[in-house]
Amino acid sequence: MYEPKTKETNNSVIEFIEDVENPKKREDAYKLLDLFTEVTGYEAKMWGPSIIGFGAYHYKYKTGHEGDAPLVAFSPRKAKVSLYFAPDDPHRESLLKNLGKHTTGKSCVYINKLADVDVNVLRSLIENTVKFMKESYPDHK
Q1: How far apart are CA 99 and CA 111, in angstroms?
Q2: pLDDT tens-place string over residues 65-98
Q3: Rounded to the nearest 5°, which phi and psi values hold at 18?
Q4: How is 14-78 classified by DSSP, letter by letter?
Q5: Number of CB atoms found within 10 A of residue 134's CB
Q6: H or E segment and range at residue 83
Q7: 57, 69 in Cβ contact below 8 A?
C-alpha cells in the first residue's frame, strides 16, 4: 500500500526557519509565515522535513490512493522559495499573470525572493486556493 512521504509532523516551524542558511531567504520565510497565517487563519505546521503548511484536507483518488495534505503551503528551499497552490483553482492562472517574477510547476510556484512579487496578488492566490480547496474537499481541517 502506498504511504505518502509528506505528512504533518510536530516539528517546530520556527526551528526549521532558523535553520535556513541564507539570511534573506530566512527573512522572507518569516514574512511568508506571517502572511499565510494572517490570510488563512490557520496555525503553521511542518509537513515532512521542509514544507510549512496551513490547514489540511483529505484526498482520495479513484485508484484508492489517499492521504492528507495542507490547503496551502510554502518551503524556503536553497535554490528558490516554493509556494504550493491548488493547480485546479480556476483563478490561479489569471492571478499568476500579475504576480511578478516566478516560474511554475504542476502545483508549485517558484520565486527567488519575496521582493520579486506583488504581495497583494500573493495574498489573493492564498485566499483563492483556500476557498477552492474548502469547496472541493468539504472534510478539510
Answers
A1: 10
A2: 788 899 999 999 999 999 999 888 999 999 999 9
A3: -60, -25
A4: HHHHHT-SSHHHHHHHHHHHHHHHHHH-PPEEEETTTEEEES-EEEE-TTS-EEEE-SEEEEE-S
A5: 14
A6: strand 81-84
A7: yes
CB 82 within 8 A of CB 58: no
The 10s digit of each residue's pLDDT in 108-134 is 999 999 999 999 999 999 999 999 999
What is the rounded (10 degree) CA torsion for 58, 60, 61, 64?
140
**Residue 117 neighbours by CB under 8 Å, 6+ apart:** 99, 100, 101, 102, 111
- Given the C-alpha cell 489540511, which residue does it identify? 56
- 16-44 pLDDT, tens digit each: 999 999 999 999 999 999 999 999 999 99
